[in-house]
Specification:
Strand order of the largest sheet: 3-2-1-5-8
Number of helices: 10
Family: Belongs to the cytochrome c oxidase subunit 2 family.
Low-confidence stretches: none
CATH superfamily of the largest domain: Cupredoxins -  blue copper proteins
Bound molecules: heme C, copper (II) ion
Helix content: 40-55%
Enzyme class: translocase
Membrane topology: Multi-pass membrane protein
Function: Subunits I and II form the functional core of the enzyme complex. Electrons originating in cytochrome c are transferred via heme a and Cu(A) to the binuclear center formed by heme a3 and Cu(B).
Number of strands: 12
Shape: elongated
Order of helices and strands: HHHHEEEEEEEEEEHHHEEHHH
Radius of gyration: 29 Å
Pfam families: COX2, Cytochrom_C
CATH topology of the largest domain: Immunoglobulin-like
Length: 353
């Protein structure tokens, strides 16, 4: 093998390995091949038919081409001979029929069939029986998701909780640029536009955790704009809603567990830092709307839109230097003159369940 060929082979092997690893990334997979509810199943069914039809066309064309190449010209006589049948007739007869049928009629029929199939599936999705008003409103921000339950009064971020086995209507829009909401195992994509609202429904037939992703390039950290959908058994879902509506005791001065001076100090650090200009904590003086609502931060699985698992070490790294973790995101790093302030702030944030 030449060194160039070896280079290509190595690059091929590395990308194949990366692809396989990415596809097999455990519980965080996002795959259209693994639909988990009726919306995604309808799309998957259509996609499978299209793949099958496309594959059949490809095989037939390749076989026809190989046959044509293998057939020796002489088999049908020498076309330049004075008595060659097509010479006087020009190009019509059999070749014209082949071009007309294989080149125009068959593709037109196939495209018409595929068009009809996709129109039917679109209809089926659009006509599905879903509520008149959204259960959830999702607003895209560079590079995170604001999540509101208008009828329940719940506000959260980067994580959507739904009851399993139910068609859940979501209305989506954007605060800044165009984003696109996509949870491949639960449904199709929908654009999130500034100043306009689009609607989609999702369904998870079984409880579980499903990952999604912004699907419209929206800036430097588009790739780290991920979302988690947690589908619960219906009564578990109600439990989640209730927990989200409770004010964590540590938010209210004097209500943190007795003797928890660290949390009380953390609350002071938080309320006297720039955090409050960008983040809200319900029931406190923090009313910012630039970043995710932190009222129930500790109940969430991830930090910074699926970028990091939500634990103390990651939270600390994020507060100190969010730009190192997610370069270009809209949160500046914070310096703590006294390391005990950081400790206290972490204790406070981790108490927000
Ligand atoms: C200038 C506005 C701004 C300031 C000041 C700010 N943040 Fe943020 N913060 C953001 C934005 C925007 C994000 C979302 C980043 C992303 O995921 O792209 C964020 C994300 C976070 C997250 C992750 C939340 C989640 O659910 O993923 C935490 C925790 C956080 N900030 C805490 C703080 C704390 C504590 C302070 C003060 C020390 C602070 N922030 C100061 C804007 C700000
Ligand atoms: Cu994006």
């Amino acid at each position: 093998m030449s060194s160039r060929a070896r280079g290509f082979a190595a690059a091929g092997a590395v990308s194949a390995a990366a692809f396989v690893t990415a596809c097999a990334a455990g519980g965080e997979q996002q795959s259209i091949l693994d639909p988990a509810g009726s919306h995604a199943e309808a799309i998957h069914g259509l996609w499978s038919w299209m793949l099958g039809i496309g594959a059949a066309v490809w095989v037939i064309v390749v076989v026809a081409m190989v046959v044509a190449l293998a057939r020796r010209r002489g088999d049908e006589g020498d076309p330049t001979a004075p008595d060659a049948p097509h010479r006087e007739a020009g190009v019509h007869g059999r070749p014209v029929r082949i071009v007309a049928v294989a080149g125009a009629l068959v593709p037109a029929v196939i495209i018409a069939v595929v068009l009809a199939m996709s129109t039917l599936v679109q209809r089926q999705i659009a006509d599905a029986d879903v509520a008149d008003s959204p259960m959830i409103e999702v607003v895209g921000h560079q590079y995170w998701w604001e999540v509101n339950y208008p009828e329940r009064g719940v506000v959260t971020a980067n994580e959507i909780h739904i009851p399993a086995g139910e068609r859940v209507r979501l209305d989506v829009s954007s605060q800044d640029v165009i984003h696109s909401f996509w949870v491949p195992e639960l449904g199709g994509k929908i654009d999130m536009l500034p100043g306009a609202s689009n609607s989609i429904w999702l369904e998870a037939s079984e409880p579980g955790v499903y990952w999604g992703q912004c699907a419209e390039y929206c800036g430097e950290q588009h790739a780290l704009m991920r979302i988690v959908v947690v589908a619960h058994e219906p009564d578990e879902f109600e439990g989640w809603v209730e927990a989200q509506l409770r004010t964590p005791p540590s938010i209210v001065e004097g209500e943190e567990s007795p003797g928890d001076e660290l949390i009380a100090r953390g609350r002071e650090v938080f309320l006297s830092s720039s955090c409050v200009y960008c983040h809200a904590v319900a029931g406190s003086a923090a009313l910012g709307e630039v970043g995710p609502d932190l009222t129930h931060l500790a109940s969430r699985q991830t930090l910074a839109a699926g970028t990091l698992p939500n634990d103390r070490a990651n939270l600390s790294a994020w507060l100190l230097d969010p730009q190192a973790i997610k370069p270009g995101n809209l949160m500046p790093g914070t310096e703590f003159d006294d390391p005990a302030d950081l400790d206290a702030l972490l204790a406070y944030l981790q108490s927000l369940e």
